[in-house]
Amino acid sequence: MATSTAADRAPGAPRPMRADARRNYERLLGEARAAFAEHGTDASLEDIARRAGVGIGTLYRHFPNRHALMNAVFQEALHALLERSRDLAGAEQPCTALVEWLRAIVTHAGEYRGLARALMSASHDTSSALSQCSTPLRTAGERLLVRAQEAGTVRADVSIGDLMQLTNAIALAAEQSPYDPELPDRLLTLTLRGLKA
């Protein structure tokens, strides 16, 4: 059986993980997902490492900081949101498509306590690992926003940056009022009234 050598890899391609490193990586991701769901994104990294059966040094080798771990945990949701934006890109009613996508963003940001706040801070920090989530979301949202603006249904002075901050603020407000499940939709409806051309 042929074995891969350094010369076989494309320049700049990451080295494949050893089997034990891959298992550690997957266990850390699974425990992080569970800890973030249970305790929010401020969950103890030491606890995550312990629950995964590894030392904190192993966690930091895979994820140099909390945002890098959060970015890895949220990749599946990010792909779903990007796929949804592509599905909505050809919708007959561009404003409705934009609203539906913003609602999906609010829902996603509200899945883990602390995520909305982290996404808001990462939107202005391109060095944050979470910008790997926020940048593609902004690009996807921009396309939907431009379509709605070109259709004349959304004001021309509305920016995707403002919309992303508003959706994260709505998710943050909902996080503070867990006993009012209708709050995000009410706040989003109020916000959208101000977007109309």
Automatic annotation (TrEMBL):
Cleaved signal peptide residues: none
PANTHER family: HTH-TYPE TRANSCRIPTIONAL REGULATOR BETI, HTH-TYPE TRANSCRIPTIONAL REGULATOR RUTR
Protein's recorded name: Helix-turn-helix domain-containing protein
Alphabetic keyword roster: DNA-binding, Transcription, Transcription regulation
DNA-binding region, residues: 44-63
Domain HTH tetR-type stretches: 22-81
UniProt-annotated stretches for the region Disordered: 1-20
